[in-house]
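Q: I'm writing a short explainer about DUF4440 domain-containing protein for a general audience and would like to include a description of its predicted shape. Could you first generate the structure from this sequence?
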Amino acid sequence: MRPHAEAMRDIERQRLRSLVTGDMETADVLHADDYQLITPRGIALSKAEYLGEIASGQLGYQVFEAVSDIVVRSSDQMAILRYRARIDVSANHGDLLSFTCWHTDCYELREGRWQAVWSQATTAS
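A: Of course. Here's the predicted structure. Afterward I'll give you a sentence or two in plain language.
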């Protein structure tokens, strides 16, 4: 059965909130073990690398939120979400960077729960 688009939007908002608040338990559940992020700078990070940087404070989101509609395309086992995001983040305990990007997430239904498997952020002008 195809997931309801609003349910997928809610899962994505929950995932973003967990990254901002540092709720690593929720973040762990919402990211598949083989998750991979492609950052706006083109760097590929595994789940362990990405969530590890957040847990250690090396990467600190102050804001990570959708600033456009979250568009959802889905099938029984997969959902793709795309939206523009506002991100305020510090890296390596440095200055706060603020930017807007296009964000695309791919979710798969695994063992009865939706998990992000791929994310890609592209800086928007």
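A: For your explainer, you could say: The CA atoms of residues 12 and 112 lie 16 Å apart.
Q: Perfect, that's easy to follow.
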